[in-house]
Amino acid sequence: MSSTIFYKFLHQKVQSTIHFDGTGISVFDLKFEIIQQNHLGDGSDFNLLLYHSDQPDVEYDNDQDVIPRSSFVLARRSPSLSKHGKFNNASRYVSGKPRIQRKQLQMQSQNGSQQTGQQSDKPVDENVSEEDRIKQMFENQTNAWAQTQDELSTHKVVYNKPTTTTQAGGTVAPEDMPPPGYMCYRCGGKDHWIRNCPTNTDPNYEGKKIKRTTGIPRSHLKTISKEAAENSSSNPDSKITTNENGDLVDAQGNIYMITDSGEYVIAVADSKTWMNYQQKQTNAVNHAKHEYELKLLECVEKDGKSEFLDPLSSTKKLLRAPVVMTPCCQTKESLKKMSNFSYNQQDLEQLLIDNDFRCPNCDKDEVYLDTLIKNEELMKEMEEYMKEKEKELGIENPETASGEKRGLEGAEGGDAKRQNTALPLRPDGMPHTLPNGMPMPPFIPGMPPMPMFMPPIPPPFMPPNK
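Now predict its structure.
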């Protein structure tokens, strides 16, 4: 059965596979397979290094080490270097043999393994009890751990470099200062690295999650007092709180953000774009109304329906509801100055106020606003005529269409994508409602929930069911 080893170069994103027979493959053979699979040549101009995937800084430096199957290793190519007068390259993996490292440490480990092997090769007495065998197993483990400690005592100790670089006065050294534009994401400071943050040693410090303004134009940002934002925890009157995500939020619900210069800002609405959008919508509706009225005017002139025209308009225009008449002029025979005795109520009232309540047709005085008569017959006739022409021409009144759209949006909550919070139907298809006339039972803590359907309360004159 074929076994596999997975590897990946440090600059690659996709891992590769090496197939071989057996339960493991040596480092030497694995390097040879990698060179052949990637067509890297004779290996004279580079050196191939393999590292552990879980410890990228630990190298497979012994060519005779065996890597178990299904393992994942990291590969890296480096320039060939001269080491001890000889060129250290990967040519031996193509045409040479694995090198043998004769180190004293390996000799000690081999001797130790031979001793343990001799001890383990001793024949086991079948008459030994189970307890003695367990005791012997623990002794062997103790001896192996002692040998490991002896080997580790010969290793060189490697000390880690301190993470902080401080001067005698306790301040950060000049060479360790962060570059301009850097910000500590733990406390928001700009004068230290996050590894040198003074709040690292404070177990009671609650970090502030401050968002960056990446991608937001400066014209949509409003600067906030930096002192108020930083002292929000110590000043309860600032009305600056922290939400469930750890962000700073003011009383209006605006989330505080920070710019590259360290200023606290909040995002504001793009009112200019919104006004432009509203203006475009208004212009589109007005244009649609104008086109609609022009088509109806053509039909009115063609059909000779002059009573549908507004007599107070300087241009030809349809009457708008509500339509009223003056008490002195209600027939075509009474027309003198005007071409129609029906007017729009708002326009006629304004005209009467400006002309001392004088009739615009016959100049009669004392035509007051409360004496105007509604011409309901003409309004009904106009409505039927407009519906008939709409069906005939295939047009639609923009005012009626927009009103129906707003009503539909209001019934849906103004947003079709908004979550439906209505109660779902029961499994049997019945809605969650109570019988008519039955009040909602009060909820008492500790009691089980009331059923959705309760039997009706019997009348006082009927005995309860037993």
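The longest strand covers residues 2-9.
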